[in-house]
């Protein structure tokens, strides 16, 4: 596209893509609203906490396992196809959950559970299809200097989704879970239609300087030996000695300037060019090939695009130690976040029921809804604020964006320590706010780090592979939480639940017979587990920041090719 036809950075086309992407993301993030209706689902269908966690994890599996597939499709074919998939999956998923809920407990409970798992998978996969399409379009529509902020704006809509839909449901249909699910089915699918017509990647102006990324290439041991030829241009002026005549006199190029190209395979840091007299005599007419060793930088150059940006994908990605570092950090942190998000409703119920002889399900559901809203709002803020922070660190402080990963890990750790100290449901919002902020910050920051370290050409596919990380942490931590909670739950056949300190009666009905009445003791062991995980992630993020800083310093020395030093052969006639 010519420069005259390329929209400016602040143009209606670019802003339309940004705000349409925000709308799609708002409809794509309802996976986080699961805990707003999960206890009611369990109560009506008489399923335990472990089974509820399996249904919730099906949505998470749908989100993260589909990432590489959706990423490859959008990298190759653009956003439209994925938006059609998102519309279909979200509509079918939520309507299926609503159908099972309305049918209530039946003789085919195993079939109903399987259907809920399938529908949960569809909602997660459909939401991720919508988000992947708009993230790809937004990242390609804004330059590196504003990329973290622009993608953070879109991701903030994804984080706000749970609050948005739960608020609508509680205002319009209070206490009606069936209508809530209907709102989710319609409200998540319609934005995908809007996005189909409005979301487009908008090319950047040609005048926009290429941003040279100085970090993120794998180390030498991570990459197979690859030889790549790079063209060096040597400008010779009137004082450059080029050759010696046969009679021993030196000849120079008059007042003309001449550009000579040398195709140099990279193999080491040292530049050694010792052309013979016959080679030098043909410089103005031919390209001469010489060997240059590039040591550790060999693999860096071999995986960069023509404009010096990294382009690591495929087997290079999977053999990169950087990829596995990010994968482990995301597994630990996202697993912590998903455990809390999927179970905060059950946590609030456990705290509400402890020592409360007048337990009221309606009152408990309000606390439950408030936790979901708190997590959603701070999730939104985290995604937005971390983008601004990362761009500020990069553009103003000249620090690697990876420094923000340490901030994110620290926030996660503080959230878990806060949750451990809380014993009253009225204080639970503090832990939910910190968890939402840290979780949103992680998913707001890591896509930009993925671009910086592994490149834009295969960004969505690479991010899809990184997004497999929450499957590991999410499954392990959430299932462990469900088992821990069930181990402390009241017996299923108990008509009256007796706690050592008081006799509890049912006012308004308990959410299920699998309720735990021990307060924080119902889940405290799970929080100890996630606290250790956050400590490990913090240590790894500090290591990543240190490595990135060293690479930035090293990269600044390699930004320009090494100067080619010519050896002059002085021949003396005997």
Automatic annotation (TrEMBL):
The keyword Membrane applies. One of its GO terms (cellular component) is fungal-type vacuole membrane. The lineage of its organism: Eukaryota, Fungi, Dikarya, Basidiomycota, Agaricomycotina. InterPro entries: MFS, MFS_trans_sf. It comes from Neolentinus lepideus HHB14362 ss-1. Keywords: Membrane, Transmembrane, Transmembrane helix. It is a multi-pass membrane protein. It comes from the Eukaryota. It holds the Pfam family MFS_1. This is MFS general substrate transporter. The keyword Transmembrane applies. It is found in: Membrane. The chain crosses the membrane at residues 81-101, 107-131, 152-174, 180-199, 323-341, 402-422, 428-451, 527-546. Its main location: membrane. GO terms for molecular function: transmembrane transporter activity.
């Amino acid at each position: 596209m010519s420069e005259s036809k390329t929209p400016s950075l602040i143009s209606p086309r670019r802003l339309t893509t940004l705000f349409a992407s925000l709308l799609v993301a708002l409809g794509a993030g309802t996976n986080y609203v699961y805990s707003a209706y999960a206890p009611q689902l369990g109560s009506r269908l008489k399923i335990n906490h472990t089974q509820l966690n399996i249904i919730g994890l099906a949505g998470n599996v749908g989100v993260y396992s589909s990432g590489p597939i959706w990423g490859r499709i959008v990298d190759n074919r653009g956003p439209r196809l994925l938006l059609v998939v998102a519309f279909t999956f979200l509509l079918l998923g939520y309507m299926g959950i609503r159908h099972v809920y309305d049918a209530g407990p039946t003789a085919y409970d195993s079939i109903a559970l399987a259907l809920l798992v399938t529908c949960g998978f569809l909602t997660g996969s459909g939401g991720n299809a919508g988000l992947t399409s708009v993230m790809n379009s937004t990242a390609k529509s804004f330059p590196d200097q504003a990329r973290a902020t622009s993608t953070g704006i879109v991701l903030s809509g994804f984080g706000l989704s749970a609050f948005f839909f739960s608020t609508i449901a509680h205002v319009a249909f209070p206490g009606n879970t069936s209508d809530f699910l209907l709102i989710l089915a319609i409200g998540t699918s319609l934005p995908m239609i809007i996005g189909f017509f409005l979301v487009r990647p908008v090319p950047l102006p040609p005048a926009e300087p290429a941003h040279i990324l100085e970090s993120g290439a794998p180390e030498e041991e991570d990459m197979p030996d690859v030889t790549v030829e790079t063209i060096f241009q040597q400008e010779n002026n009137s004082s450059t000695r080029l050759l010696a005549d046969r009679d021993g006199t030196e000849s120079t190029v008059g007042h003309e300037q001449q550009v000579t190209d040398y195709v140099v395979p990279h193999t080491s840091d040292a530049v050694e060019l010792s052309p013979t007299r016959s080679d030098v005599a043909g410089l103005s007419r031919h390209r001469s090939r010489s060997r240059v060793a590039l040591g550790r930088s060999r693999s860096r150059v071999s995986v960069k695009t023509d404009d010096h940006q990294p382009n690591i994908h495929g087997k290079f990605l999977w053999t990169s130690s950087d990829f596995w570092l990010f994968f482990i950090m995301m597994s630990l942190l996202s697993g912590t976040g998903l455990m809390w998000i999927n179970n905060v409703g059950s946590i609030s119920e456990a705290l509400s029921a402890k020592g409360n002889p007048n337990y009221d399900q309606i009152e408990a559901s309000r606390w439950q809804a408030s936790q979901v809203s708190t997590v959603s709002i701070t999730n939104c803020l985290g995604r937005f604020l971390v983008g601004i922070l990362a761009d500020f660190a990069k553009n103003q402080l000249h620090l690697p964006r990876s420094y923000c990963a340490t901030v994110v890990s620290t926030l996660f750790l503080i959230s878990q320590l806060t949750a451990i100290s809380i014993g009253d449901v009225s204080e639970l919002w503090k832990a939910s706010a910190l968890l939402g902020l840290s979780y949103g910050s992680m998913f707001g920051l890591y896509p930009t780090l993925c671009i910086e370290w592994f490149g834009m050409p295969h960004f969505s596919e690479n991010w899809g592979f990184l997004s497999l990380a929450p499957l590991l942490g999410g499954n392990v931590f959430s299932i462990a939480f469900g088992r821990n909670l069930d181990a402390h739950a009241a017996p299923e056949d108990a008509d009256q639940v007796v706690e050592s300190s008081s006799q509890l009666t049912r006012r308004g009905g308990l959410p299920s017979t699998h309720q735990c009445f021990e307060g924080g003791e119902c889940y405290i062991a799970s929080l100890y587990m996630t606290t250790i995980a956050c400590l490990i992630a913090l240590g790894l993020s500090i290591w990543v920041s240190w490595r990135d800083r060293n690479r930035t310093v090293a990269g600044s020395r390699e930004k320009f090719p090494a100067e080619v030093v010519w050896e002059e052969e002085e021949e003396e006639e005997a």
